[in-house]
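INPUT
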Amino acid sequence: MAAELHVELVAADRQVWAGEATLVVARTASGDIGVMPGHQPLLGVLESGPVTIRTTSESEGGTIVAAVHGGFVSFADNKLSLLAEVVELADEIDVQRAERALERAKSEADAAAERRADVRLRAVAAG
Amino acid sequence: MGAQLRVYKRRIKSVTATKKITKAMEMIAASRVVKAQRKVAASTPYATELTRAVTAVATGANDKHPLTTEVENPTRAAVLLLTSDRGLAGAFNSNAIKAAEQLSEKLRADGKEVDTYIVGRRGIAHYNFRERKISGEWTGFTDQPDYADAKAIAAPLIEAIETETAEGGVDELHIVYTEFVSMMTQNAVEARLLPLSLEEVAEEAGTKDEIRPLYDFEPSGQDVLDALLPRYVESRIYNALLQSAASKHAATRRAMKSATDNAGDLITALTRSANAARQAEITQEISEIVGGSAALTDATAGSDK
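OUTPUT
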């Protein structure tokens, strides 16, 4: 079965993950979007939020969730790239730290920090 | 011990201590070059993907954008100069500063005002000493720049370019940094970041003659371009910062290597002189003893008779 697409998850300072997948769900400025193999070429602006990648390899549990803070998604020739300044895999996120950050951000009314912490927690919950 | 010999011994000791220090600095710089190179390599996938995306939008959407539109009569240009916080790097900083000055000269000759933005204490000190105006300055991260640093630098520059020239904005943005070619070669280079020349971007991505797919833009071509271009500028500045850091460490390594070599040569020369001085001292002592004993023999020989 050739129904798989190559995914590259890239942060500004490193490549976070690369591999084959059957479905990628990301949140763009106009709503959630799911990309499957053979999708029409696409270039979109991402909102901060969790990105779900359904991989083909069983060793990684089939699904990868990452917290993506802003960025872009581009798809062409069965190659999907997710670009963002900051990308964190759900496994890398320290839940307690994110919760503490959320508390602090709420008390200091720091909207940007609150959003970042919230995205992290949602990614962990989805993963 | 003779006075001369003592002086030589003392100098040898001090040069040996200096040599140890420069040797240590050389090794530290060498390890940092490798680290900085690794960071450059790690940032490449992002830059490549971003360049590809910019090419795709710009050619597919045909949208005009302040960051890509050439102004007909540019009257003011911004020059971003990347230097380092610390010296001891040979001609690294002076080369970058020289390149920036040549570029500013050229821009002024074309009838443009030049706003200078500087990264790194060395460049800032150079401009302050000459009492030239600096429009923006950043320090403290030139050894290990982060993406956040590049963002901080890019923000006021993008704002300046989006402002109308009459209200204090700029029409062009140039960047002067030190390109890391290899361990032995680093060149001060200048490049025009904005307005973006889309042909150049396409060439850089190596997709000039490729047939590009027709993209579907989400939410719209204009919005994607709005969001992409600042990121592209940030990524270019980030890459320049990383290359500049790698070049600085390589320049330090080379400067320290030649300092170590010079110290070694100096020690050899001083040791030779010290040996000669010691030998001269011994020769003199022997001739004094021989002379003294000869005089004694002569004196006793005379009294015996």
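end of record. Chain B is about 65% helix and 10% strand.
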